[in-house]
Amino acid sequence: MIKNVHIEVSYDGSEFHGWQRLSNILSVQGYLEKTMSSLLKQEILIDGSGRTDKGVHAINQSFTFKYEDVVPVENLKYFLGNKFVDSIKIQSVREVPLDFHARYCAVEKSYIYKINFNKEDQLFFRNYFWFIEELNIEMMRSASKHLIGEHDFTSFSSIGKKGKIVNPIRNISSIDFELEDEMLVIRFIGNGFLYHMIRLMIYHLVQVGLEKRLPESTDEILKSCSRDLTTRIAPASGLYLEKVYYQMDEYKVIR
Question: For labelling, which of 30, 71, 189, 193 has a CA lying 20 to 30 Å from the CA of 61?
């Protein structure tokens, strides 16, 4: 019997050239499809909730796939996860309706960005944080308020570089700052994010935190719908896809 399965995985993005399947280059999607096809002895094609770039990590990335249940769904977590490389870990496995799709059924996503103020850690943790000097976090909070809500985020995206026509309107429901010891974690929750959108916003917020830009400049940049003032991008190493949220009886949005 054909089953539709939803899986959440964590992965170390520094081990892969991004999420998207690529020819002759190690990607998360490509690795999962090849490995699962071999283990389940059938062609497996997976649909991710979205893409992550090279160097970007995931705490909970979601994907769906259909398969002939040669292995019961309830046994998949152990059967598959036990054979994945150490840089990928299965967090959850569940059967979902056949029309459920990891990308199209998502209602919100949360990402976090980690900034480490302790440069003594830089050698061993350079792939997992952005190391930077102290920041004026209150100014960053003030700037972030201009980004919350529904906006045209053309100024904070690289959609033009992808050569596709993409709707630039997105809604950010919250941006939160958590400071613990020498670590700043910035969390974004929204209904979707454009190509490079979070990393461009992070770079701008850091410029504000370094007091090189005023918080009020955020509104001006948004309204310009231009990349003229957002030419730099934050490193991929500090970005993590935290969670994908779904609104179904079995998938209530829980924060």
Answer: 71
